[in-house]
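Marked as duplicate of an earlier ticket. Keeping the data here for the record.
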Amino acid sequence: MSTAVFNQNLAPELKAQTARDRLRLGRNFFWTAICVGASFLTLIPLFSIIFLVVSNGVGLLTPSVFFELPPAPGQEGGGLGNAIQGTALMVGIAILIAAPLGILSAIYISEYDKRSMLAAAVRFIAKLLTGIPSIICGMFAFATIVVSTHTKSSIAGGVALAVLALPTILLTAEQALLGVPHALREASYGMGATKFQTIFRVVLPEAVPAIMTGLMLAVARAAGETAPVLFTATSSAYWLSSLMEPTQSLAELIYRFGKYPYPHLIQLAWTASLVLVVLVTLTNVTAQLVFGKRKRR
C-alpha cells in the first residue's frame, strides 16, 4: 500500500521532468538546425563566386593563355603570360621580405620577451595593420620607393604587398609558437640545450605547419590585392625584363579589362579571375598536404 502511494506522489514529478526534457531536446534541435542552416548559408556566396568564375572564364582557358601577352583593346586572342609572371614575382618579393621579419618578430615576442612593452607594442601595431586599408600601403610604397626611384616597378609592388602580408605572418606565427607544448621546451632544457637551440631545433620545427598556414593566407591576400599594385607597379603590355620597370599583375588586369566595352577583354578578365583562384587554391592545398603530413608524422 505504501509503495502505491509513493508511486502516485512521484508520478507528477516524473511527468514534469519528462516535459522539461522534451523542451530541452526541442530547443537543442532548434538551435542545431539554426547553426547547420547558417553554415550552409555561408557556403552560398563561395559556391556562387566559384560558379560565376568557372562558367565565365573557362571558355578562354587554353594552354596558350599562359604564355601570350594580353591583347590591345578591340583585338582578339592574347593571354595572361606577363600578368602571371608579374603576380608571381611581386608576391615572391613580398614573402621574401615579410616572412623573415614576421617569423623572427614572432619568435622574439613569444619566446624571448613575452611580457615586455616592446612585445605589447609589436602585437598592437600588427593587429592595427591587419585592418588598415590596402590603398594606404600602396601610398606608403609609392612615397618611399616610387618617388625615390622615379619609376613604378615590381620592387615597389612587392614592398607594398609585404606591408600587407607582414601582420598576418607575424600574428599566425606567434600563435603557432604559443601552441607548442611547454613540456617540449622543458625536455630540451633538461637535456642541456640552450634557449637558441630549443627554439630553432624543437619549437620552430613543431610550429612549421601552422606557420605555413599563415604564410599561405598572406600569399592569398597579396596575390589578390589591386590598389597597392595600381600605385606602385601600374601595368605593362610586355614581358618583364627588369625589376625596376612597370609590371603587370592578374589583379590589375582584371580591374582594367573588366571596364572595357569589349566582350573578349571582359571574358579574358574572367579567365584571369579563374587562374588567380586556381593558383591560390593550389598553393593552399599543397601547403596543407605537405606540412599537414609532416605534422602527423
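See parent ticket for discussion. The domain at 63-296 is CATH 1.10.3720.10 (MetI-like fold).
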